[in-house]
Amino acid sequence: MSEPAATPEKAAARLVEISGKEVTARVATAECFIRMTTEACEALQAGTAKGDPLEAAKVAGLFAAKRTPDLLPFCHPIALTGAQVVLEPDAPSGTIRIEASVKANDRTGVEMEALTAAAIAALSLYDTAKAYDRSAEIGPLRLLSKSGGKSGDYRRQR
To answer: Among residues 52, 90, 127, 153, which one is catalytic?
Structure first.
């Protein structure tokens, strides 16, 4: 029987050193979708006994952007200078599009903050939608654009 192939040693988990990087203006935008029945989407838009699920999702997304380093172990704490979560419901198709944009002046990007904001906003919507449609689906979640930093600008081709 042959010996198993050697695997390269893995580096210990750590935050990447960024103190030598230049502080630049950083902006990132991400989107996520949640799909459900038309009736469920209409119910979310109308509001529930708990309040307005769309506003709750926006607030959840904003909280998530601020707390990203608490959730993802390789993310640096960043002093965000702005964040916005926009929801675009389309009841006839049963879809709500979520777009999250995050800004900072820092040494590392805000892509993960934007992605986390969009994802958590979608989860907040699911939390309410499940009362009307347990088969609601989230996705795709994707980065639309980013600017700033050494790697430059990125814009997703649609």
So the answer is: 127
